[in-house]
Amino acid sequence: MRTLPFALSLILVAAGVFAFGRWLGNSYAFFAGYVVVQYIVLGTAWNILGGYTGYVNFGITAFFAIGAYSTVVLHKLAPVLPLPVMIVVGGVLAGIVGLGTGYLTLRLRGVFFSIATLALAVVVQTLITNWDFVGGARGAYVLRPRTAPLIGGEYMQYLCLIMLGLGVIVLVTARSIQRSALGYGFAAIRDDEGAAEASGVPTLRLKLIATTLSGAFMGMAGAPLPYYVTYLDPASGFSLNYAVNAIAMPLIGGTGSWLGPVVGAVLVGGLQEYLRVTISSAVNVLVAGVLMVLFVIVAPQGIVGLFQRKR
Amino acid sequence: MDFSLDLLLNAFISGLLLGGFYAAVSVGIAISFGMLDVVNIAHPAFILLGSYVAYIGNTYFGLDPIVAAVIALPAFYLLGMAVYQIYYVAFESRDDQALRGLSFFFGLLFITEVSLVLIFGVDYRLVEARYIGPSLHLGLFDLPGRLLVPFIVAMAMVLGLQAFLSRSFLGRAIQAVAQDQLALRLMAADPVRIKRIAFGLSIATAAVAGAILIIIQPIEPSIGREYIGRVFAICVLGGLGSFPGMVIAAMTLGIVESLTATFFGPSWAPAVAFGVLLVTLAVRPSGIMGR
User: Fold this and answer.
1) Does A275 touch chain B (CB under 8 A)?
2) Is residue A76 a contact partner of residue A142, using CB atoms and an 8 Å limit?
């Protein structure tokens, strides 16, 4: 399928999901839907770097929280700004941080990049905790407007719609990268970086593009978060759950293609929402970690890989 | 801000003692990452596991935390061998260490942390021992017992391991694995067996490091994450696999962190390690004593 028909059918699917939610008329559906789509965005963003080039980013919470806290700042300084503008700002900031981290560490072996991103999450959390303007360790309240702009109804529906739109953008980007020269360059880096470099692939530049894009999308996924939770403190914004889910979902779904993170996010995210309601919220966070370890050991190609092998 | 020689000197001394403790925390990574090339980012989680073992031994059986850790050593050694066996079969032998191997350890880190939360809750836990309260006064400076005892234990452990690695047959075999696995195979030795033993050792050090961690400060399950940046910063700064370099790096970081905490407030201390790590990676990735 060409990119345009693919984008149009994705938009149709997103519109269908949204219409279904409206028809249900249950506000919990929008809360749960928002979380699952947020993980689709986060997982796909991680996969652009991790799955396509093979470089593991553990600092998801850093990028995600940069997006979220840039919204907190903008909400305090200029509350009239529409949410999509805040998302763009959050994305740009997170992208710049991604570029900087990549520039400093990507010339070394991949594992040093991974370690640096782990440490990055701690340092960004330290900075935010010490920054009183955004509430420091106490956290910040962000009041959600009562009604949604443009579409009417609860504001939560608007947030869900925005996240669906973001999901469409990220998936279309991920899929077109996969089929472009850029994507083949990424795959060459993943399979054998030395050989890629020797055959003239500009590896450093491609890796920097991947880290920037991936970081920017993570920031965008985080930007609407303050409106979703209405109270954001460092402990929840930097929760390890985001990082584990964003890595676990692509690995469970399959890292090779754009479809993997979607399958993983829908299955694991859905399962977690189900467990949160039926058993307890402590158990649901364990699920992603255990499933991830099982999948990387038993089914390294993920769910998508299982089906491809059978064919 | 009050700036006095007294304060500076005491911050310096406690940083030095803290650095000794950091060396004990990092020695496991120096073995697994520096020598075996196994990027065990779950090491801090094993350290916390050690802390909780010391906590149980201390609270329910009245043992000294360090004695409890020594009793737990064999169990940690076996746990390490088991983890390496899984890692070897699932990732190293498939030559898939980068993406999935790292994710495996990240998953272990997360599972351990959440399990500890489920069992012990998020309250801070601490241990009791006679040396935790009092301090040794030496003229201008104070040597608090809760830092001095960990320092001595840590140094004993690092020196002991160094002697083991450089003197004993098995220790030299571990160093040989670090240098050239293929050559070892050609001499009819099994690198996987030696790596399994070495990885078991690296996890065993986590039992002792965990016990001295809980002597130094009260713990809760998520503080392990703060140590990830620290231990890797120390190992990279020290030059991978070099024990003397690691000790120097650990003390440097301890002193810089202690000075930061004294003069800018303790909430800034975790950022120091990251700064050190980034500067090292950008300027001299082989570390101060790198090969």
Assistant:
1) no
2) no
